[in-house]
Amino acid sequence: NIGGSGHTVQTEGAVLHYLGINYENSALAQTHVRQALSAALARQSLCDTQLQTFATPAVLPVNPQPDNTGINLSMAADTNLAQSLLRGGESAADGQTAEDDTDDPDSGSDPEGDTGDPDEDTGGEDGSGTEDGDGSGETLSFTLLVNADNAFKVATAEQIASSWNALKGVSVTVDRQPYETFVSRLQSGSFDMYYGETQLTADFDLRPLISSGGSLNYGGYANEQMSTAVAAARSGENVAALYERFAEELPFIPLAFERGQIIIRKGLIDHYTPAPYNAFAGLEHWTSTD
Length: 290
Description:
Layout: E1 6-11, E2 15-21, H1 31-39, H2 43-48, E3 55-57, H3 79-86, E4 140-147, H4 151-165, E5 170-177, H5 179-188, E6 193-199, H6 207-210, H7 224-234, H8 239-249, E7 253-258, E8 260-265, E9 269-270, E10 287-288
Parallel strand pairs: 4-5, 4-6
Antiparallel strand pairs: 1-8, 2-6, 2-7, 3-7, 9-10
Helix pairs in contact: 1-3, 7-8
């Protein structure tokens, strides 16, 4: 919060908050389970609370979210769809909803996100949850690893876990670890799911997160069709196909993109319109109000 005569202007950016997954966990490796967990998240609520309105919710890992994709880009929680998916129901990418109700507020994240360091793309405890989501009646139980040294991220993880624990047959524990332990667990693959944050490149290159051997691919994700879709999109052939494949597969779960903040004295400049990563965009149009 800015007191006195300060005025805050926001700009969009490419700092992605997301949930990473360990594919050694047999339950989380199931596509319909990842879709269900994503559907249960109230991303808009997350941005309005823990991210303090300085973030833009995201279902796809690109900013802004693309128009006319046919993909369900709802930023509210859909617990009915989540519960249906856990029972092996319709795909979240189809935008189908089940018959129950409730909006499940999850939130939390860190506006002080540590761009480009291991805290931003992190790991959790070894996947030991039992399988669920196939009507077997077993509980989907796993841990969500978070950097305990970052209070914003801890609060975010707690909000997310609360949303998931509201689902029938799901039990999630937040695993708070000091930064050094957090990084060590990430690097050793000793986690189920983790709260991550990373600065994407301006072209939103996903290869570090999802390519085999990618620098941020701590969970061991590998999918030839996804790699093909990424390559095609990067060559300009079919970006829409990448969005569709990502929404169907969900190799990781996007949450939001941070917004940059610029603070200036009120009444100092008229026609101030900064651009992402450029506080002086449109300088030639500035006029003084004094």
